[in-house]
């Protein structure tokens, strides 16, 4: 304080005021002990006011449980759908070529590889110059003790085909 100044008491609004109000105010406590010094009733009121009450914690916990269960169900459904019970039996096809026999027939030559003893069905298609399907046939390839098989499939067409190929194969 400078020489000649005197200290004034402070009122409740932190303005200089009367001496009788100055003894009502004490300096706030400082340090880590002060942070947790709120009365339990005050703490509960503040927690409720700012969304930290017991109800909020229960809702958060319930939401976490429901989310975890939903994720587990989705994973289980996916595992069943794509799991080890679904196998392609080593199925692989290669289009070797085609032979246009006439305006109404094409022969498609294919190399097929599948586990021995597995029956396969294949959809064979013929296309015209505009890539329109002009012929389609589903053939059954019987089970065999050999993994690799050659397949020549005649496909009847509605007009002249310019190509023939395997559309897809599957294990029935």
Describe what you observe in this structure.
The chain folds into two domains: 38-86; 92-170, Sandwich (Immunoglobulin-like). The protein contains four helices and six strands. It has helices at residues 19-22, 32-35, 40-49, 54-82, and strands spanning 92-102, 105-113, 120-127, 133-141, 148-156, 163-170. It has a three-stranded antiparallel β-sheet, with no helix packed on it. The chain has a three-stranded antiparallel β-sheet with strand order 4-3-6, with no helix packed on it. The model has no long low-confidence stretch (mean pLDDT 81).
End-to-end distance:
98 Å
Q: What pattern of helices and strands is seen along the backbone?
A: HHHHEEEEEE
How many β-strand runs? 6
**What is the CATH class designation of the largest domain?**
Mainly Beta
With helices defined by DSSP (H or I, 4 residues minimum), what is the helix count?
4
- Helix/sheet category: alpha+beta
Biggest beta-sheet profile:
3 strands, antiparallel
Give the helix proportion (percent range): 25-40%
In CATH, the topology of the largest domain is named Immunoglobulin-like
**Which whole number gives the mean pLDDT?**
81
Approximately what portion of the residues adopt beta-strand conformation? Answer: 25-35%
Principal-axis shape equals: elongated
CATH architecture label name of the largest domain:
Sandwich
Q: List the domain count as a whole number.
A: 2
Radius of gyration: 42 Å
Major sheet: order of its strands? 1-2-5
Low-confidence stretches: none
């Amino acid at each position: 304080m400078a020489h000649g100044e005197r200290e004034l008491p402070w009122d409740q609004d932190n303005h200089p005021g009367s001496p009788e109000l100055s003894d009502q105010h004490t300096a706030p406590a400082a340090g880590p002990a002060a942070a947790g010094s709120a009365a339990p009733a005050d703490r509960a009121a503040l927690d409720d006011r700012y969304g930290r009450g017991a109800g909020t914690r229960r809702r958060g916990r319930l939401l976490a449980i429901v989310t975890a269960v939903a994720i587990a169900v989705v994973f289980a459904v996916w595992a069943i759908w794509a799991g080890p019970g679904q196998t392609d039996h080593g199925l692989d096809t290669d289009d070797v070529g085609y032979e246009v026999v006439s305006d109404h027939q094409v022969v498609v030559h294919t190399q097929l590889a599948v586990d021995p003893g597995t029956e396969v069905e294949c959809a064979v298609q013929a296309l015209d110059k505009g890539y329109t399907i002009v012929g389609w046939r589903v053939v059954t390839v019987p089970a065999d003790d050999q993994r690799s098989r050659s397949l020549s499939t005649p496909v009847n067409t509605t007009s002249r085909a310019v190509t023939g190929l395997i559309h897809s194969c599957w294990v029935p």
